[in-house]
């Protein structure tokens, strides 16, 4: 499904939220990975009263969310998380998440927001509420220089490494069932498997494999854009209209100052280099995908 339809569906879902969803006493019935457990989300007022916001990010997905050698969180998503906390006037708490746990962490209210390269899909939008996008992405495939995979058809009968709970897993499961998927929980595990030769290639967001290949000689992104151009957006617990509305307004306001272009310059340009094509193909300002 095209990305504009996905965004429209997410926006429509937000408009149908009930007033009861604004109360921190409201229980949001989980309907996904947590097996139906209920969760109590926090409104903007709750977060401000507590003095802290808890945001889920990746800890192993350089350059978007990772922990550096000094033990500090860095990356494109982290830069955005820091600005959110600043504009709310609260302290930022970062919680590491894995791709497959992002929905569950919101359904059980372990975090207030997920900022972990979360691609908007119809299935996910049934379980969480997505705000406006701040990045766009497609899939990519990276493989060894000695046997570069240049099309998904070349993976037929071969082993493709993926991370559980990602769009790459669902895309290849649906469209290329003859490709054997080797699944891992964490990105570090997946890249280690590729380097060790346990699989023929690895697929995840094209933005990430392009960055990884630049830093790891011997590997090439033979497929640099696969599937539809999708949106990356913050997500909140289903029904948390207070925080969703605040995030949408924040993203629109940040667009006026070209915040995400600054974010790119600070966190991604050192990886991608001076090629402006990367920036324009990735950055979304003001929630506008056009």
Summarize this entry quickly.
By secondary structure, this protein is α/β, with parallel strands linked by helices. It is built from 12 helices and 15 strands.
Task: Give the CATH topology of the largest domain.
Answer: D-Maltodextrin-Binding Protein, domain 2
- Which structural class do you get from the secondary structure elements? alpha/beta
For the largest sheet, list the strands in their spatial order.
7-3-8-15-9
CATH class of the largest domain, anyone?
Alpha Beta
Distance between the termini: 17 Å
- Could you give the count of β-strands? 15
The fourth-level CATH homologous superfamily of the largest domain is: Periplasmic binding protein-like II
Word description of this protein:
The chain has 290 residues and is α/β, with parallel strands linked by helices. The protein has two domains: 3-134 and 233-282, 3-Layer(aba) Sandwich (D-Maltodextrin-Binding Protein, domain 2), CATH 3.40.190.10; 138-229, 3-Layer(aba) Sandwich (D-Maltodextrin-Binding Protein, domain 2), CATH 3.40.190.10. 37% of the residues lie in helices and 24% in strands. The chain has helices at 3-15, 44-50, 76-88, 102-107, 122-125, 167-175, 187-195, 206-215, 241-256, 259-267, 269-272, 276-282; strands at 28-29, 38-39, 52-57, 60-61, 65-67, 73-74, 91-96, 113-114, 128-130, 135-144, 159-163, 180-184, 201-205, 219-232, 235-237. The strands form four sheets. Strands 7-3-8-15-9 form a five-stranded mixed beta sheet. A five-stranded mixed beta sheet has the order 12-11-13-10-14, with helices on both faces. Strand 11 (159-163), helix 6 and strand 12 form a beta-alpha-beta unit.
């Amino acid at each position: 499904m095209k990305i504009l339809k996905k965004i429209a569906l997410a926006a429509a879902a937000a408009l149908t939220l009930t007033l009861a969803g604004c109360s921190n006493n409201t229980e949001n019935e989980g309907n996904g990975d947590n097996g139906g457990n209920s969760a109590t989300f926090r409104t903007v007022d709750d977060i401000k009263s507590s003095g802290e916001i808890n945001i889920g990010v990746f800890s192993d997905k350089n350059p978007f969310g990772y922990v550096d050698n000094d033990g500090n969180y860095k990356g494109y998503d982290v830069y955005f998380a820091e600005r959110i906390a600043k504009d709310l006037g609260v302290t930022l708490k970062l919680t590491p998440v894995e791709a497959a746990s992002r929905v569950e962490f919101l359904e059980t209210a372990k975090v207030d927001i997920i900022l972990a390269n979360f691609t908007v899909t119809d299935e996910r939008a049934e379980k969480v509420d997505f705000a406006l996008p701040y990045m766009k992405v497609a899939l990519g495939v990276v493989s060894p220089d000695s046997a570069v995979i240049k099309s998904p058809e070349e993976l037929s009968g071969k082993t493709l490494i993926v991370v559980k709970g990602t769009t790459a897993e669902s895309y290849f499961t649906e469209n290329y069932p003859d490709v054997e998927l080797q699944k891992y929980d964490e990105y570090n595990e997946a890249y280690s498997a590729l380097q060790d030769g346990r699989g023929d290639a690895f697929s995840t967001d094209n933005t990430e494999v392009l960055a990884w290949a630049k830093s790891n000689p011997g590997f090439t992104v033979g497929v640099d854009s696969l599937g539809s151009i999708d949106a990356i957006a913050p997500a909140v617990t289903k029904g948390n209209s207070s925080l969703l509305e605040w995030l949408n307004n924040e993203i629109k306001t940040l667009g006026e100052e070209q915040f995400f272009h600054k974010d790119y310059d600070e966190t991604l340009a050192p990886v991608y280099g001076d090629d402006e094509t990367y920036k324009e193909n990735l950055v979304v300002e003001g929630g506008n995908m056009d």
